[in-house]
Design brief:
Elements: H1 3-13, H2 15-19, H3 22-37, E1 41-48, E2 53-61, E3 65-67, E4 72-74, H4 79-87, E5 90-93, H5 106-113, E6 117-125, E7 128-137, H6 146-185, H7 191-202, E8 210-216, E9 222-229, H8 235-240, E10 243-245, H9 250-257, E11 261-264, H10 274-279, E12 284-292, E13 295-304, H11 312-343, H12 353-363, E14 373-380, H13 383-390, H14 392-407, E15 416-419, E16 424-429, H15 435-450, E17 453-455, E18 458-460, E19 464-471, H16 478-491, E20 499-501, H17 513-523, E21 529-538, E22 544-555, E23 559-561, H18 563-572, H19 576-596, E24 603-607, H20 609-612, H21 617-628, E25 635-640, H22 641-646, H23 648-660, E26 664-670, H24 677-682, E27 687-690, H25 702-717, E28 721-725, H26 730-738, E29 743-745, H27 755-764
C-alpha cells in the first residue's frame, strides 16, 4: 500500500475527524493537503443553489494558517469552469491562465489572487458533483505527480463523507426538535408563547446560534419581532432587532421570495445591519419562511457564528421541519383570535365581563404584587329609550363614542375600561382609591359623558349612575368585588348625585338566589334566553352529523349568567321542566330556520331528571313536534347517565314512550354514573356520549385511551354509536378515529355559536343544500 493510501486510511480511522465539529474536520483535511501537495493556498468549496454557485467553506494559506472563507463563484459568470468540474474527476491546470477550462477565472479571481496553477479534485456524492478541493499555486507548474493527485482525490472523498455526515446530523437534530416540541404543539399557545418556544428549540440545532421569530408589521414595510433567543447579545444590537425593514434583510427576502434564504460572506455586505451583525460575531444568516395554506405566518431567522454553507439538502430538511411549525403558529393565531373574541365586546372593542372577571382573579392572585383594586360600574340611564327611538344603528354609534371617551378619560389612567352589557361599562383600577378621590373620579366621569354627543344629527346628553367598590377597604374579596359594585350601582338610583359606594352594612341581599329564581322565571319566553348550537361531526370524514342545543341567559343587569349557575337555580326553584320546555320550543322553531337555509340536520336537547320521571313528558314532546310539523328524527334527546340511575324503572318507561315516537335517545356524560350493562341493554338508545373528563387529556393519558377504547367496544357491541365530547384539537380528533369513535364535538370542532354563525360555519364547509323555494 502506498504512503498516500496509508496516510488517507489513518486519517479516515481517526475518530476525532468524525465526532468533532465540521469546520474543524475540514481544517484537518486542508492541513494534510497543504503538506502533501505543496500548494500555496488550499480550500474546500461546496455547491449550492442547485449547482449554480460555489461557496468557499474553508481556506488555508502556506505559512499563514486558516484564512477567511465565504467567497462565492457563480455558474453564470464561469460556465466553462463549472462545466469542467461537473464532467472531470480531477481538473489539473498547470497553466491556469491559459487553460481553456480555467481561463475565464483570470481577471476576476486568478490574477487578483496571484495564482497561476490549479489542481482541483471534485467532491462527489451519489454520482454528482457536490464541491471541490482546490489546490492553488502562485507559480506555473509542470504538473503533479500521481501521489499528489491521489492525495487530492482521497481528501475530496473524505470531505464528501463529512458533508453527508453533517447533513444527517442536522436532519436528526431537526427531527429531534420536532419530537421534543410535539407535546407543546398540542397546547393552545399564544403566538408570542409559541414563537419563544420555537426560537429556544431551534437555537440548539447549531451550537451558539441566535434565533428570532418575526411577523409582518401592520404597515407591511417592516417586520416585527415576536421572540428572540440571543444569550450574550449586546443590548444595543438587540434593540435594533425589534423592528426591521423588509428591504435588504434576510427576513424581507424570505417573505418576498417565500423560500429559504441563506446569506453570508461578501455577498451579504449590502444587507441591513450586516456590519453590526459582523461586529456581534455573526457570519451566516438563514431565513426560514413559515407558510400555512399559502399564507405566510412568520419568518424564523437563525444567525450563526461560523461560516456555514446551507446545501440544497440542508434547506430541504429545514423546509420539512418548517411545515408543522407553520401549522402550529397558524393555530396559535387562531386561538388568539378566538380568545380575543371571547373576551372582548365586538361593537366597542373593549374587554367584556368575562375579561373583567379574569383580570380581577389575576390581580387578586396570591402572587400579585399589590392586592388592591377599585371597581366602578357605569350605567347609561335611559339607553333603551334612546335605542328604541333612534334605532339600533344609532344606539351602536353612541356606545362606540362612549367607549372612546372612557378609554381616554383621566379618571381611567392606569386602569382598564370594559363593556359588560348593552348600556353598562366598568372601570378597573389596580389600586385602592381613597373614598374622597373615588367620589371625585366618578363625578368627573359623569361630567365627561355629560358633554354632548352628536348621533344621527341629534345632540344627546347622557346621564350616568355609578356604583363603586374597593378592596380590601370594603371587606371584599376578589370574586365579591363585582357583586359589591353591582349592589352599589343599584343603590345609586336613589342618590341625588347618581354615585354610590358599596357599604357592607347596607347589604342584606346575600347571594340573591331568591331574586335569581324570580328573574329566571320572568326570563322564560323572552329574548334573555336563547340557544347556541355546537356541531357534532363524523370522525371518519369530518362531515356534520348533528348539533347540540345549549341554553344561554343574557341577564339585563348581570350579563351572561353561566349555565352552571342558572341550571342550579332552576333545579332548586323547580323550574327545570319549564326550562326544558323552553329549550324544546326554541330548538324546533330554529330547526325550521336551519332547513329554510339549507341545513338539514338534527338537534339534540338535554333533558333533566325531572323530565325523565314525568309520565306526561312524552306527550309534551309529541305535542311540540306536532305543532312544529317536523318529523321526530329531527330531534334527539340527551339523558345523563346519573339521571337514568336515580329512578331506573320510571326512566325506562318514559324512554320507551319517547322511542316509540321515533325520537333518537343518547346517553350523555357516559362514564360519570354507575349504570349497569344489563340495564343499558334494555333501553332503546342510539348513542353514548363519552364524558369530556376522559377526552380532554386523551393524547397524554394512556389510561384514558384504554377507557375510551373499552367504551367504544362496549357501545358497538350493544349496537350503539359513540360520541366524544370535549374534543379540543386535531390531535385528539385523529386519535379518536384510531380508537373507532363515530362522532365528536368540542371547541376543536366548533365552539357553541348562535344560529347565524352556525349557518356560516356550515356554508364554509359545504354542508348547506340548495335553499327551499
Amino acid at each position: 500500500m502506498s504512503d498516500v493510501r496509508q496516510q488517507l486510511l489513518a486519517l479516515g480511522k481517526d475518530e476525532s475527524l468524525w465526532t468533532g465539529h465540521f469546520a474543524a474536520a475540514l481544517s484537518r483535511l486542508l492541513e494534510v493537503a497543504e503538506r502533501g501537495i505543496g500548494a500555496d493556498v488550499v480550500s474546500i468549496w461546496q455547491f449550492t443553489d442547485r449547482g449554480q454557485q460555489l461557496v468557499c467553506l474553508a481556506r488555508r494559506e502556506r505559512g499563514k494558517g486558516p484564512q477567511p472563507s465565504g467567497d462565492v463563484l457563480a455558474a453564470s459568470t464561469f460556465p466553462r469552469y463549472f462545466d469542467a468540474l461537473a464532467n472531470e474527476r480531477v481538473l489539473a491546470a498547470a497553466d491556469a491562465l491559459a487553460d481553456p477550462r480555467t481561463a475565464e477565472l483570470r481577471d476576476s479571481y486568478l490574477v487578483p489572487a496571484g495564482f497561476a496553477a490549479l489542481l482541483d479534485a471534485t467532491i462527489r456524492r451519489a454520482g454528482r458533483v457536490a464541491g471541490v478541493l482546490c489546490c492553488e499555486h502562485r507559480e506555473a507548474q509542470t504538473g503533479w505527480d500521481e501521489a499528489q493527485t491521489e492525495l487530492a482525490v482521497g481528501l475530496a472523498d473524505l470531505a464528501a463523507q463529512l458533508m453527508v455526515l453533517t447533513e444527517l446530523r442536522r436532519r436528526d437534530q431537526l427531527q429531534g426538535l420536532l419530537l421534543s416540541m410535539a407535546p407543546e404543539l398540542r397546547q393552545n399557545h399564544t403566538p408570542q408563547e409559541f414563537a419563544a418556544l420555537a426560537v429556544a428549540k431551534l437555537a440548539h440545532v447549531f451550537p451558539g446560534a441566535w434565533t428570532a421569530f418575526y411577523q409582518t408589521g401592520a404597515d407591511e414595510q417592516h417586520a416585527e419581532l415576536l421572540a428572540l433567543y440571543a444569550p450574550g447579545a449586546p443590548p444595543g444590537f438587540k434593540a435594533k432587532l425589534h423592528r426591521l425593514p423588509l428591504e435588504n434583510t434576510v427576513v424581507g427576502l424570505a417573505l418576498r421570495e417565500r423560500r429559504m434564504v441563506a446569506v453570508g460572506g461578501p455577498s451579504a455586505k449590502h444587507m441591513h445591519l450586516w456590519h453590526e451583525s459582523r461586529s456581534a460575531g455573526l457570519k451566516t444568516l438563514l431565513g426560514i419562511p413559515l407558510i400555512h395554506e399559502q399564507s405566510l405566518v412568520g419568518v424564523m431567522v437563525m444567525a450563526l457564528r461560523l461560516h456555514y454553507v446551507f446545501t440544497d439538502d440542508d434547506l430541504a430538511s429545514f423546509e420539512l421541519a418548517s411545515s408543522p411549525l407553520a401549522v402550529a403558529m397558524a393555530n396559535a393565531r387562531n386561538v388568539e383570535t378566538l380568545r380575543h373574541r371571547a373576551l372582548h365586546d365586538a361593537l366597542t372593542g373593549l374587554p367584556n365581563r368575562d375579561k373583567l372577571q379574569q383580570d380581577i382573579e389575576h390581580l387578586c392572585a396570591p402572587t400579585a404584587e399589590v392586592q388592591a383594586l377599585t371597581l366602578l360600574l357605569l350605567d347609561v340611564r335611559d339607553f333603551r329609550q334612546i335605542n328604541d327611538t333612534l334605532g339600533r344603528g344609532s344606539g351602536d354609534q353612541l356606545l362606540q363614542a362612549v367607549a372612546g371617551r372612557l378609554q381616554g378619560a383621566p379618571a381611567v389612567a392606569g386602569g382598564q375600561a370594559y363593556r359588560l352589557t348593552s348600556s353598562e361599562f366598568a372601570l378597573l383600577l389596580p389600586q385602592r382609591v381613597p373614598a374622597a378621590e373615588l367620589q371625585a373620579r366618578a363625578l368627573a366621569l359623569q361630567a365627561l359623558l355629560a358633554q354632548p354627543f352628536t348621533v344621527s344629527g341629534l345632540t344627546l346628553i347622557l346621564r350616568l349612575r355609578i356604583g363603586t367598590a374597593t378592596m380590601p377597604s370594603d371587606d371584599c374579596t376578589g370574586p365579591e368585588l363585582l357583586r359589591a359594585a353591582d349592589v352599589a350601582l343599584g343603590w345609586a338610583d336613589a342618590e341625588p348625585s347618581g354615585v354610590c359606594a358599596y357599604d357592607r352594612g347596607r347589604d342584606n341581599s346575600g347571594p340573591r338566589r331568591l331574586e335569581m329564581i324570580s328573574e329566571l322565571r320572568k326570563a322564560l319566553g323572552t329574548e334573555q334566553l336563547s340557544l347556541h348550537f355546537q356541531p357534532k361531526v363524523r370522525v371518519a370524514d369530518g362531515r356534520l352529523a348533528g348539533c347540540e342545543a345549549l341554553l344561554r341567559w343574557e341577564h339585563p343587569r348581570y350579563g351572561r349568567v353561566p349555565p352552571s349557575v342558572f341550571i342550579g337555580v332552576a333545579e332548586k326553584g323547580e323550574l327545570m321542566s319549564l326550562l326544558t320546555h323552553e329549550v324544546l320550543r326554541q330548538a324546533l322553531a330554529l330547526l325550521h330556520e336551519m332547513r329554510a337555509a339549507g341545513l338539514f340536520t338534527s338537534v339534540a336537547v338535554n333533558v333533566s331528571g325531572h323530565n325523565m320521571v314525568d309520565a306526561a313528558f312524552p306527550e309534551t314532546v309529541r305535542a311540540l313536534l306536532a305543532q312544529s310539523g317536523l318529523p321526530p328524527e329531527a330531534l334527539t334527546l340527551e339523558i345523563t347517565e346519573t339521571v337514568l340511575m336515580n329512578d331506573p324503572e320510571r326512566a325506562a318507561a318514559v324512554i320507551g314512550d319517547l322511542a316509540r315516537q321515533g325520537l333518537a335517545l343518547d346517553i350523555d356524560d357516559f362514564g360519570t354514573g354507575y349504570s349497569s350493562l344489563a340495564y343499558l341493554r334494555r333501553l332503546p338508545l342510539r348513542s353514548l356520549k363519552i364524558d369530556r373528563a376522559f377526552v380532554r387529556e386523551l393524547t397524554a393519558n394512556a389510561q384514558d385511551v384504554h377507557i375510551v377504547r373499552s367504551t367504544v367496544g362496549l357501545a358497538h357491541g350493544l349496537g350503539l354509536s359513540v360520541i366524544a365530547e370535549g374534543v379540543e384539537d386535531n390531535f385528539t380528533l385523529a386519535l379518536l378515529g384510531t380508537l373507532g369513535c363515530d362522532m365528536a364535538q368540542g371547541f376543536g370542532v366548533c365552539r357553541p355559536v348562535p344560529l347565524p354563525e352556525l349557518l356560516a360555519w356550515a356554508e364554509a364547509r359545504g354542508e348547506l343544500q340548495p335553499r327551499l323555494a
